[in-house]
C-alpha cells in the first residue's frame, strides 16, 4: 500500500468566487442535473454527515438532489429535511433484503436521475446494479474503509460494483489503494476525494458547561467522539491505556469523555468498571452538539485499529484540539505525526498512554500541535473543496457519457 510521509502534499482547498461558478442559463442548458445519493441508513456517522453536506451544498442552480436511504428514518433524516433536502426511505433491514431492490427500482424509474452516487457497500450493490439495469447515464460508487469485505460473496459483489460504476470515489489514498488491490478494475476509475467539514462551525463554536456532561471543572479533560464499535475503534485498548495512565504520579489529574453510541457500549461500560475507571470515564452517549463539546477538551484521541479517513480527527483539529491517533488507514493523510498531532502504533496501549502523558505534562507542546493542526485542516479539508470535487466529477462523467446539457466542470482557481 502506498505510504504517506510527513511531508505529504494534499490538494489545496481553495474557495471559488461566485463569478467562477458556471450558470446553467449562461451556458444554454435546458434543465438541472438530477443526482440521486444512496446510502444504507441515516444514523449519525461520518459517511452520513458527508453525504448530507454534498446534498446540501451542490450548486442548486446546476443540480437537483434526492437522498435515498435503504433503511428507515435515522437520526439525521430530520436535519436533512430541515435543510430542504428531499429524503426517501425504503424501510429495508440494512442487510441484503430482496424487498429493497423493487422499491429502489421504482424510485429510480420515478426520479429518472442523471447520476446515481452510492455510499457504503450495500448501497453500492443496490445502486450500481439497478442503475446499470435502467441505463442511468452516470454511476458512481464509493468506498470509505480499509479491511472490509473479506467474505467471498462480498469481494465478488464489490468486484462487480467497480466494474459497473463509471467512477469509484474513495475518502483517502489508503482506501483507494486498498480498493484497487482488493476489488481490481481500472485504476483510472478510482478517485480520491478527501472528506471536508465546515471549518468555521468548529473553529468559532462556544463550549458548553462541563457539568452538563457530568464532568468536573478545573481538571484536564481528554475525550473521543466515535461509534462504539469494537474492535474497529480500539476503545478497549484506550481504556487499558487510561488505566495505566491513572497509576502514574508524574501527570496532572485527568478525566475522560466518550461521546457516541454503538453495539459495543455495554462491553465498554463493563470494561471501564473492571479497570477501576468509573470515577474518571464519562459516557455521554450520542450528541448532536459535538462542535460545542470539543472546546472543552485538552486532548482528543482516536485509537482506531482500522480507519478509512477519521473525520472526527478533522473536526477536533478544526476546534484547536491537539490530537493523538494511530498509524492506520487514511489517518496518516490527516495527521502529520509530530507536526499536527501524534500517531502511535495501533493496539499498543503502552505507546498510547505515553503519548497522552507527554502532552498532559507539556502544555506548550500540546498547544503548538493544536494550533498547527487547526491551520492544517483549514487549508486542506474545507467542505467547499470536497463538494466542488464532486461537482467536477459529475460534470466530467456526464460529458463523457454524452449528456450534452450537463454542467461544465469548475476550475479551482
Short description:
With 413 residues, this protein is α/β, with parallel strands linked by helices.
Structural class: alpha/beta
Helix proportion of residues, in percent?
A: 25-40%
Strand content: 15-25%
CATH class of the largest domain: Alpha Beta
Low-confidence stretches: 1-29
Task: Give me the CATH superfamily of the largest domain.
Answer: Glycogen Phosphorylase B
Q: Give me the Rg, rounded.
A: 22 Å
**CATH architecture field of the largest domain:** 3-Layer(aba) Sandwich
Give the total of beta strands: 13
Shape annotation: elongated
Could you give a short account of the major beta sheet?
7 strands, parallel
Structure description:
This protein has about 425 residues and is α/β, with parallel strands linked by helices. The chain has helices spanning about 25, 45-55, 75-80, 100-110, 120-135, 150-165, 175-185, 200-205, 235-245, 265-275, 290-295, 310-320, 330-335, 350-360, 365-380, 385-400, and strands at about 35-40, 65-70, 85-90, 115-120, 140-145, 165-170, 190, 220-225, 255-260, 280-285, 300, 325, 340-345. The protein folds into two domains: about 20-195 and about 380-400, Rossmann fold (3-Layer(aba) Sandwich); about 200-380, Rossmann fold, CATH 3.40.50.2000. It has 16 helices and 13 strands. A seven-stranded parallel beta sheet has the order 3-2-1-4-5-6-7, sandwiched between helices.
Amino acid at each position: 500500500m502506498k505510504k504517506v510521509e510527513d511531508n505529504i502534499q494534499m490538494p489545496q482547498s481553495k474557495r471559488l468566487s461566485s463569478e467562477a461558478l458556471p450558470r446553467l442559463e449562461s451556458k444554454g442548458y435546458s434543465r438541472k442535473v438530477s443526482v440521486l445519493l444512496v446510502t444504507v441508513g441515516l444514523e449519525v456517522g461520518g459517511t452520513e454527515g458527508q453525504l448530507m453536506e454534498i446534498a446540501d451544498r451542490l450548486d442548486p442552480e446546476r443540480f437537483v438532489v434526492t437522498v435515498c436511504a435503504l433503511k428507515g428514518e435515522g437520526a439525521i433524516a430530520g436535519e436533512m429535511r430541515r435543510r430542504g433536502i428531499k429524503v426517501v426511505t425504503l424501510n429495508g433491514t440494512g442487510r441484503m433484503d430482496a424487498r429493497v431492490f423493487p422499491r429502489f427500482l421504482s424510485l429510480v424509474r420515478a426520479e429518472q436521475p442523471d447520476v446515481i452516487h452510492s455510499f457504503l457497500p450495500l448501497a453500492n450493490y443496490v445502486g450500481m446494479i439497478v442503475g446499470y439495469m435502467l441505463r442511468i447515464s452516470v454511476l458512481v460508487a464509493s468506498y470509505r474503509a480499509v479491511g472490509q469485505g473479506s467474505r467471498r460473496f462480498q469481494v465478488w459483489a464489490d468486484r462487480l460494483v467497480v466494474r459497473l460504476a463509471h467512477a469509484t470515489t474513495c475518502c483517502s489514498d489508503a482506501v483507494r489503494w486498498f480498493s484497487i488491490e482488493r476489488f481490481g478494475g481500472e485504476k483510472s476509475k478510482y478517485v480520491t476525494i478527501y472528506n471536508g467539514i465546515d471549518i468555521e462551525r468548529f473553529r468559532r463554536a462556544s463550549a458548553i458547561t462541563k457539568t452538563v456532561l457530568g464532568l468536573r471543572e478545573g481538571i484536564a479533560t481528554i475525550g473521543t467522539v466515535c461509534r462504539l464499535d469494537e474492535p474497529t475503534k480500539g476503545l478497549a485498548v484506550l481504556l487499558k491505556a487510561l488505566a495505566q495512565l491513572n497509576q502514574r504520579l508524574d501527570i496532572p489529574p485527568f478525566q475522560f469523555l466518550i461521546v457516541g453510541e454503538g453495539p459495543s457500549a455495554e462491553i465498554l461500560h463493563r470494561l471501564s468498571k473492571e479497570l477501576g475507571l468509573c470515577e474518571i470515564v464519562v459516557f455521554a452517549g450520542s450528541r448532536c452538539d459535538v462542535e460545542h463539546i470539543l472546546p472543552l477538551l485538552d486532548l482528543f484521541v482516536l485509537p482506531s485499529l482500522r480507519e478509512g479517513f477519521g473525520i472526527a480527527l478533522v473536526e477536533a483539529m478544526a476546534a484547536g484540539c491537539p490530537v493523538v491517533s494511530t498509524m492506520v488507514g487514511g489517518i496518516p493523510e490527516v495527521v502529520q505525526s509530530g507536526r499536527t498531532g501524534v500517531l502511535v502504533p495501533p493496539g499498543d496501549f503502552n505507546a498510547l498512554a505515553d503519548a497522552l502523558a507527554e502532552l498532559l505534562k507539556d502544555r506548550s507542546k500540546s498547544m503548538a500541535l493544536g494550533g498547527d493542526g487547526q491551520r492544517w485542516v483549514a487549508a486542506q479539508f474545507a467542505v467547499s473543496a470536497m463538494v466542488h470535487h464532486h461537482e467536477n466529477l459529475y460534470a466530467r462523467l456526464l460529458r463523457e457519457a454524452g449528456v450534452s446539457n450537463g454542467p461544465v466542470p469548475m476550475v479551482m482557481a
